């Protein structure tokens, strides 16, 4: 789907939480932004850390790490670098593109607030190609954003991983660095580096304006606030929705005109996420929200076939820097293809479980971990399908 401002679906439920990130409306310019939010406060570092801790804001790019801890950890003798990550390599997500098309000033507010609080030497926005134009227009409207560097992101699934972003900016190679390296200590230009997803920065801008208590007044008390989710698959209207963090999967899918309890399964978090069964959709996604993807698999589609295609893409997306990625993901893709085709289904399922255990936590980056998580969830949620495929039939095609 084309990633534009029109992909935002309006909140039609009168009882739903009013939009926060998208409160200024479609394609908001500087005047609309100021009218909706007012000027930013630009809290000093200690005050910003305190409000972020009070808010409970966690990262919206997939890792869900507490924002205040990232800020506090960014220290060193050299002035740090602050990077906003809007590369969005997840194939079923366009929430960041929608945010940057509609609320670029809120992202810039968060980026500038973090940069000023840290006394940053460089301030960078790393953007998907489609987002460069609206953000450049927003920068041109402001007097405080001249130091923000806009850099077009490389394509590729792993290109948006935090260390891959730093590597791309440093060397032009958008592949992850060794996972033992802490960017908060030594990142871009060898400086301490704070890297946040662009939605996290927009949420940070709201905390700067209204404080931590206001931020956590909606959503799950353990993971407060709202978040953007991209709902795709077998629904009436694919799109991006702003929902409170305690919204159930059932309610989120209903916003898109779908019925989660009639699905074959729902994938939370995208390609590095996990499948859940229809019976589990009455709960909020929680940490499984990942990059904010909710993909609905209709009852007529085979979860094994869909997962096999995803695992094949994950294997192809490998940075080919370590054995778990280079050999493990390729083997997983082959075994899942066999499973989907019904060839040696029980043996293939057992081998997939073994391979998932073998690659998990052993890669140079987290790419193999995400693939292992997806595979394990598919083996669990689609267990009945595996048995049917072993008998030479598909539960879905029989409908």
Compute the CA-based radius of gyration. 21 Å
Major sheet: order of its strands? Answer: 8-7-11-9-10
- Measured as a percent range, the helix fraction is 40-55%
User: Regions with pLDDT < 50 over 5+ consecutive residues?
Assistant: 1-6, 8-14
- From the 3D structure, determine the CATH topology of the largest domain: Rossmann fold
Number of strands: 11
Please identify which CATH superfamily of the largest domain we are dealing with. NADH-ubiquinone oxidoreductase 51kDa subunit
Number of domains: 2
Query: What is the H-and-E element order?
Result: HHHEHHEHEHEHHEEEEHEEEHHHHH
What characteristic shape results from the CA principal axes?
globular
Instruction: State which percent range the strand residues make up.
Output: 5-15%
Rounded to the nearest angstrom, the distance between the terminal CA atoms is: 28 Å
Structure classification: alpha/beta
Main beta sheet: 5 strands, mixed
Q: What CATH architecture of the largest domain would you give?
A: 3-Layer(aba) Sandwich
In short:
The protein contains 15 helices and eleven strands.
Give a verbal description of the structure.
With 399 residues, this protein is of the alpha/beta class. The protein has 2 domains: 5-215, 3-Layer(aba) Sandwich (Rossmann fold), CATH 3.40.50.11540; 303-390, NADH-ubiquinone oxidoreductase 51kDa subunit, iron-sulphur binding domain (de novo design (two linked rop proteins), Up-down Bundle), CATH 1.20.1440.230. It has 15 helices and 11 strands. The chain has helices at 30-37, 45-55, 67-73, 95-102, 104-118, 129-140, 162-171, 198-210, 212-215, 249-255, 303-316, 323-341, 345-359, 367-381, 383-390; strands at 81-86, 122-127, 148-152, 193-197, 219-220, 223-224, 226-233, 239-244, 265-268, 274-276, 293-297. Helix 11 runs antiparallel to helix 14 (367-381). The model is unreliable at 1-6 and 8-14 (pLDDT under 50).
